[in-house]
Amino acid sequence: MHAVLFLAADSGSSTGLVLPKPDEFIWALIAFVILFAVLAKLAFPALRKGLEAREQAIRGELERAEQSRLEAEQKREEYDSRIADARNEADRIVREATESAEAVRRERTAKADEEARQIIEKARADAATERERAFGDLQRTIADLSLEAARRVLEQELSNPEAQRQLVERFLQTTGQSGANN
Questions:
Q1: What pTM value is reported for the model?
Q2: Rounded Cα distance, 16 and 168, in Å
Q3: Which residues contact 22 (CB under 8 A, 6 or more apart)?
């Protein structure tokens, strides 16, 4: 302020360069008051409405952004829930597949054990049948030998009882040894 007064004093006039003349000052003040009144009546309400509209638009945008954020969070929770459900379902499917595979393995093992048991029983039955057949063959052979011995005995002299006895004893001994070996 001192500088303004200093400049005014240097210029040689009482009003100076910076300060207006009093009559100009009054008209400038009146013009300013009129301009201010016109602006207050016409422009300021429009500016205020524009600022309020802008403020409402910003609030609306903020509310929509908050709503979008809440919806996004809700959808994320829903997706997380779906992912957890999918993982649980996958675990259940894997568990069922494992149990099913174990059941199939047990079934096949039981089937293989049953087939092995049947093969063993058939082999035993075949062995028993073969033993019976061999025993039948042995009996036929013994019968044939007996007939052969009887024929030889008959061919020899029927008058020599000692030779007949020795022949029968030898036949019985050979037959007894053959039966004991088999």
A1: 0.39
A2: 180
A3: 15
Residue 139 has pLDDT above 60, yes or no: yes
pLDDT-based confidence at 179, cuts 50/70/90? low
Assign 182 to helix, strand or coil. Answer: coil
Q: How far is CA 87 from CA 73, 82, 83, 98, in A?
A: 21, 9, 6, 16
Look up residue 125 and give its DSSP letter. Answer: H
Looking up tokens 């049948």 gives: 129
Task: Count Cα atoms within 13 angstroms, Cβ side, for 120.
Answer: 6
- How far apart are alpha carbons 27 and 102 in whole angstroms? 107
Which sign, positive or negative, has the C-alpha torsion 110, 112, 117, 122? positive
Q: What one-character-per-residue DSSP string does 64-117 give? A: HHHHHHHHHHHHHHHHHHHHHHHHHHHHHHHHHHHHHHHHHHHHHHHHHHHHHH
pLDDT at 110: 93
Q: What is the pLDDT of residues 18-75, one digit of tens each?
A: 777 888 889 989 999 999 999 889 888 988 999 999 999 999 999 999 999 999 999 9
Instruction: Spell out the residues 6+ positions from residue 2 whose beta carbon is closer than 8 angstroms to its own.
Output: none
CA angle 74, 76, 79 (to 5 degrees): 110
